[in-house]
Amino acid sequence: MPKLIMSLDGAELREFTLSGSRMTIGRKPHNDIQIENLAVSGEHAALHSIQGEYYVEDLKSTNGTLVNGSPIEKHFLKHNDEIEIGKFRLRYVAEGAAAPVDSGSFDRTMVLRPGIKPADLPPPPPPQAAPAPAPALPSGRISVLNGSNAGRELELNKNLVTLGKPGVQVAVISRRPQGFFLTHVEGASFPQVNGAAIGSQPHPLQPGDVIELAGVQMRFQQP
Description:
With 223 residues, the chain is an all-beta fold. The chain has strands at 3-8, 11-17, 22-26, 33-34, 45-50, 53-58, 66-67, 70-71, 74-76, 82-85, 88-93, 141-144, 153-155, 160-165, 169-176, 179-187, 192-193, 196-197, 203-204, 210-213, 216-221. The chain folds into 2 domains: 3-93, Tumour Suppressor Smad4 (Sandwich); 140-221, Tumour Suppressor Smad4 (Sandwich), CATH 2.60.200. The chain has no helices and 21 strands. The strands form 4 sheets. Strands 2-1-11-10-7-8 form a 6-stranded antiparallel beta sheet, with no helix packed on it. A 6-stranded antiparallel beta sheet has the order 13-12-21-20-17-18, with no helix packed on it. Strand 15 (169-176) and strand 16 form a beta hairpin. This is FHA domain-containing protein. Residues 114-140 are annotated as: Disordered.
């Protein structure tokens, strides 16, 4: 079945199998594909199926929907088209899309020429080891250092946690096997870590880092 592969900053987060005649994408929990991010509208976009083909429709969202970098109202999807909603990417994988051919998956026929013994042939390749299990995701938390919420702690137990004030400054902390990363989402100025602006690229967080976002200071901690 066709599917969407969600990623953020090049890191794949989830896969969604497409089914039914209509699926919605948005921030609110009732959507078929929920993206908990303030840059995403409550009901941002919809996917429609017509005789096995899918098209994406922008639902008059605040920040718009792009496909392959261009804003759209409605767009029929082709294999590997990339839907952009905020900083998130949803890559469309069509049903029956060909997977890369692994030449090692075919049986080989041995042909012996006169005078060649099996012992003269190179040994067969060793069997491939089973794939390693997915690495465990790290744990962490942030502690608010100032303002009315000073002393409050927030466990970073989701793959994405949105912080800040909409319309002022918003950022997201993403949890990956390599650690936690802070990414700017919205606002005229970038968040700061230890007094320095992080820029537009994901910034790796280290234990003890002090994040400043929309006037609020928070300390990142890990066990």
